[in-house]
Automatic annotation (TrEMBL):
Its main location: membrane. It comes from Palleronia sediminis. It is a multi-pass membrane protein. One of its GO terms (molecular function) is transmembrane transporter activity. It comes from the Bacteria. This is ABC transporter permease. The chain crosses the membrane at residues 34-53, 65-83, 118-140, 147-166, 192-212, 233-254, 266-285, 292-312, 318-336. It is found in: Cell membrane.
Amino acid sequence: MTSVMHEDGPRGAAGMKRNGSASMRRLFAEGAKGPIGLLAALVVLIVVFSFLNPRFASIENLQNVLFQVSVPLILVVGATLVIQMGSIDLSIEGIMGAAGMTWILLSPNTRTMIDLGLWAWLIALVLGMSLGLMTGVIYAKLKVPSFVVSLGTWYVGLGIAILLYGNNSLPSLTSEALARWPTGLTLGLPHAFWLAALVLLFGLLISNYTNLGRGLMAIGNNEPIARMSGMPVNVYKIGAFAIAGLLGGLAGILATMQLGSGSTDIGFGQLFVVIPAAVIGGTALGGGEGGMIRSALGVVLLIILNNGLVLAGVDPDYQSGVFGLILLFAIIAVAWPERGRLKVAK
């Protein structure tokens, strides 16, 4: 009896304290590993490309990089929420096209005489959220794989964009204020980047400080246990896709403003930046792991890589191939240490 009391006393407490401290150190190390590795990779890229072309490190190019980062940064917030629960969203390009065309046709443009002001934003955003909501409902309620559902939503959005585009002339913005807003500077940074930074903050708050964010991570870790604990799994799944759709709509509006005209394929190529960026950032395709900051750093890394290849004078005919090879090696480098824990995306 005495020995038991002894173990539960100061020595036992000290052991628990040591174990707790070790757990905290491991938690910090795991949380810091991703960002530190990504930051190191960013520093290497910046040094290499600055050596190859001194213009890379100029203020003008930094502003250009941040301008290019803005759209995929908005998209990766929604994509990260979806991937964290072990699902995938392929619909972003279609949603961007539908929302972008809706917005420009309801804003000052060369085709219509309509100018609904803020209502144009609201209608386009609601359209994007509705498409995401549709994806979430079919996925959660009808148990159709997210890959299949979101692929279908992509083409639904693309179809809406094509119908709105029609056979008439290209709709272009006639408002100079709207056309110039994304490239305008505040504190030396483009407005488009400030908008993306606010969205990233919104994603951080959801992911780290709400039941939805914690619930999505729990679903990705072990969905059956999440259900048995009484968690509203279907509600969280639908909510994640609705948010992703909303942000896809916002990205479509911003991309349309940047282009200055409507386009059905305004989101072309974004999917192949956003998903790899999240994976490079450490968001596991099987769910249950990842974070907004890490995904954002993944976006910045890929945009800097693309920008650097252009300024380094790589032949345009080879840029896609070189970019793809580097991206492939980057994903392997990130995934290989965790290959034993990787799961197939649901």
